[in-house]
Specification:
17 helices, 78% helix, Growth Hormone, Chain: A
């Protein structure tokens, strides 16, 4: 693999202590990620109800996604800096407890401002967990199985895209949007118990902190790739946050059909994650091309599907497949760019991801309120394709 920078290598540890039979921990991490990402995605199905109750526009209501992401942007790289020596199992237990409390606070919040506060807490929990996921997995399994382990962890993301929006739409249609957050609080509590039982002790990186973070940031390949990933993620989440609003503009799509449409996206996400897990270790550059192309073209196709239910379903299915492969592709890319600074690289990855979610939701809300839903999807589809073009320029640094 080509070196990413001409700086001295600062290794996190010369020989990480691994738990050789750590697959139960991988499953526990996947369940935790599932409940956290479900919590993050839920507002996409609840924006109209939340906007009506609080007397705000859907664009403003969508900023609960922005709030979650903004704090996540700081918390991602900040966790390793704030808790350099804390056992990573204990750290994630604390973060999962915060996620439970955040969802419970959302259920009783009398004002939109308090909902935003609750989502800020959730953002810290999500980002901290995501930032440590790759490093934790590297302690649970052998290096040759790391890609497979992350594909399993990312089933939590794909599963959340299946469950979050359609279940949120279904439960809220009968019991109101607040009941949805009660349900996810309970699910997160269950995941917490499983995590405590199944996850072994995970030591912090032997060498880490600000020095590692700055060293990773001095890599031109890292910076260019992260900008590309930011455009891909912003384009996706800026569109996905308002996918129900877009679907409501397709004649013939009833509320039940919209729930099915969103479930199709999630199933596509599972398929995409499986495909990425099968091929990304051997065909990373091909994945770096395919993933953003499929996402971007699918968003553009969805933007012009207002006259066809079938076209909307095809576009959303392909969109789900494309984005389902993105987490595994992205994490594989960053592990090849900075193999000796996994915690630092993981923190930067999460910060970029969360910044892009905040940017996408903010710009999406603005475009929705000022230019309409179709223009919003067109802009974001182009942004994803542009991000993919940037990411591919780093291909020589990640080939083996």
């Amino acid at each position: 693999m080509t070196s990413t920078a001409s700086i001295p290598t600062v290794t996190e540890t010369s020989e990480p202590k691994r738990t050789r039979s750590g697959w139960a921990g991988v499953i526990a991490l996947m369940l935790a990620i599932f409940t956290l990402v479900t919590s993050e995605f839920l507002p996409a199905s609840l924006l109209p109800m939340m906007a009506d109750e609080f007397g705000i526009t859907e664009g403003v209501a969508g900023q609960v996604v922005t709030a979650t992401a903004i704090v996540g942007m700081i918390a991602g790289p900040g966790m390793a800096l704030l808790f350099p020596r804390l056992d990573r199992k204990r750290l994630l237990v604390i973060l999962l407890v915060l996620a439970v409390l955040s969802n419970l606070l959302t259920t009783v919040a009398p004002t939109y401002a308090l909902v935003v506060v609750a989502r800020l807490i959730l953002g810290a929990a999500i980002a901290g967990t995501w930032a440590m996921a790759l490093a934790i997995a590297s302690h649970l399994v052998e290096p040759k199985h790391l890609g497979r382990a992350m594909a399993i962890v990312n089933i939590g993301v794909a599963g959340a895209t299946v469950a979050a929006v359609p279940l949120g739409a279904l439960i809220s249609s009968t019991s109101g949007w607040r009941t949805v957050f009660y349900a996810i609080a309970a699910a997160t509590a269950v995941a917490l118990v499983v995590f405590i039982i199944a996850m072994p002790s995970i030591p912090a990186a032997a060498v880490g902190g600000l020095r590692n973070l700055l060293a990773a940031l001095r890599s031109r390949v890292m910076i260019v790739g992260l900008i590309g990933l930011a455009l891909i993620v912003a384009g996706h989440f800026g569109s996905y946050t308002f996918i129900r609003t877009g679907a409501e503009n397709v004649p013939g799509l009833s509320p039940a059909a919209i729930a099915l449409l969103l479930a199709v996206f999630g199933v596509g996400g599972i398929v995409g994650n499986i495909l990425a897990g099968l091929f990304v270790d051997r065909r990373l550059v091909a994945a770096m091309v395919a993933v953003p192309v499929v996402i971007g073209l699918s968003i553009l196709l969805f933007s012009v599907s207002t006259g066809s239910v079938a076209l909307a379903f095809i576009a959303v299915a392909l969109w789900g497949i494309g984005f389902g492969g993105n987490p595994t592709m992205s994490q594989t890319w960053i592990s090849r760019v900075e193999p000796n600074r996994i915690e630092a690289a993981g923190g930067l990855f999460v910060a970029t991801f969360q910044f892009a979610i905040a940017l996408g939701a903010a710009v999406g809300g603005l475009l929705l309120d000022t230019s309409g839903v179709q223009t919003m999807f067109l802009v974001f589809g182009i942004a994803v394709l542009a991000g993919g073009s940037l990411l591919v320029t780093t291909r020589r640094s990640v080939t083996r």
